[in-house]
């Protein structure tokens, strides 16, 4: 039985900041951001947008009456949870008015959470082939204004339907994964900005990939030439490019050219949205599918997932005969094109207007409401969501 991605959609805030202009204000060479890091624009989420609203906005594009009736689980991978106890999946379940006879769970392991949800969904479908699982990978990356990590911030969500006999891509049973407790990146529960050991984290990302890729080739008997494309977790696009370079020395010229060309297609959305943690790998996959029309049914796509702390996994998927008909590239292009650019002072004001880590009531600014679902505030320590 084939199991995999039957439908996929994204959501990102209506606002962004141009990183060339940000570099100029910060006194940096713009090439440091656009070439050295590999980012052009960065999504800016107002306080009325969080992982719940973005996840619901992405998921609502996929839901039909038949899908609702077949749902068995709602899984949210995130490291931007809105509550230390209650699952963000339950808030999303409520906003989408989903059936009560489902499991609704949130999974956390840094940027790996979306892949953990995908693999849990795959296993569930293997045991319940008549069911569908809604997987959402949603996050907001925050490091602070004028910090070393500022250029790798971002916000967004990717929603996927996982089913038997999928229309877009199978998830093959060929995973190789690795776990090790390291301190390369973390976020204490009392703050909304992450702490990153940047150089060390990059080294670990690459070391995990190299070890897993070597083991994958030995165990699964696939080489780079078997892949039409490889996609990577993209905290920033240059990171994935460094990983791909570890593969290229052992490939022939045609394979190397193909992988590099399609890697660039996989980075287009990330270059404009920024880092969305658990969703970054799947934003890259969606970018590849939307932007490379030379892909064909039967092509094998490699996916590398990395979550600091750290867990990593490499697996593959096979494109299905009618995959292109299931995509909505024009809608995604319009979503990005229609966003409003913020000046750097406006971006700084929006970034600083955040839901506080204290019991005081808070109301978000309606000026920045976006999408079908918004967070209107936190009243009496209860989050207030609204469908517009």
UniProtKB/TrEMBL annotation:
Domain Hydroxymethylglutaryl-coenzyme A synthase C-terminal: 254-351
Source organism, top-level taxon: Bacteria
Pfam family, one: HMG_CoA_synt_C
InterPro entries noted in UniProt: HMG_CoA_synt_C_dom, HMG_CoA_synth_N, HMG_CoA_synthase_prok, Thiolase-like
Keyword Lipid biosynthesis: no
EC number assigned by the record: 2.3.3.10
UniProt record, GO biological process: acetyl-CoA metabolic process
The family this protein is said to belong to: Belongs to the thiolase-like superfamily. HMG-CoA synthase family.
Record's protein name: Hydroxymethylglutaryl-CoA synthase
Record organism: Lacticaseibacillus paracasei (strain ATCC 334 / BCRC 17002 / CCUG 31169 / CIP 107868 / KCTC 3260 / NRRL B-441)
